[in-house]
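Hi team,

Below is the intake form for Membrane-associated phospholipid phosphatase from Aquipluma nitroreducens. Please confirm the fields before the structure is written into the shared record.

FORM ID: S-0412
PROTEIN: Membrane-associated phospholipid phosphatase
ORGANISM: Aquipluma nitroreducens
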Amino acid sequence: MEYLKQLDTQLFMLINGSHNAFFDPMMYWLSDKLIWIPMYLLIIFLMIRRYKMQGVLMLVFVALTITLCDQTASGLLKNTVQRLRPSHEPSLSGLIYLSKAGPGGLYGFASSHAANVFGLATFLCFVLDSKFRYLKYGLFLWAFLVAYSRIYNGVHYPGDVLAGSLIGITFGYLMAKAYFSTNEYLKKKAKPDSQTNI
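The structure came back. Fields below:
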C-alpha cells in the first residue's frame, strides 16, 4: 500500500509539474462546472427532440446516475477514507501548482468530478442510439479531460481520479440496465390498454 501511495504521488507530481501558461487557463475551465451548462442544455434538447417522452425517462435516470456517483464519491468515500488532497498535504506544501480555483475541500478520495462525468458518459453511451455515436466519443473524451484536469490543477491524485472514474462507469452501466428494464416494463404495461381499445 505504501508503494502504491508513493507511485500515486510521483505520477501526480509528474502531471501537475507539467503545467504551463498555455494549458493553465484551459485546465481551470475544464474543471469548472458552470461552463458546461450550455453543453448539458444541448444534450437535454437533443434527447427530448429525438426520444420525446422516452427522453424524459432518460433524463430521470441521468439525474439518478449523477446523484449516485456524487454521493458515493463525496458523501461516502471522502468522509470514510479521509485521504488528504495533495493540495492539503503538508509534505507537498510549496511544491505543487494550484489553479486559481484553489485547494478544494480537505479530502480527495474519490474524485466526484471524475465519478460524475464518467457516470454521465457511460450511461449515455449505452442508452443513445447510433445516430449519436460522435456525441458518445466526444463525451468520453470530455470525461477524460475533466478527470485529467483535476490532477493538473493540484486537487486530486491519479488514484482519486481512477477510483472516481470506476465509480462513474459502474453506476453508468447499472443505471443503463435499470433504464432499459424500466422502459420495457412501461411498454408492456401500456400494451394491454392499446389492445383493449382495438
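SUMMARY LINE: Residues 158-197 form the longest helix (40 residues).

Thanks, M.
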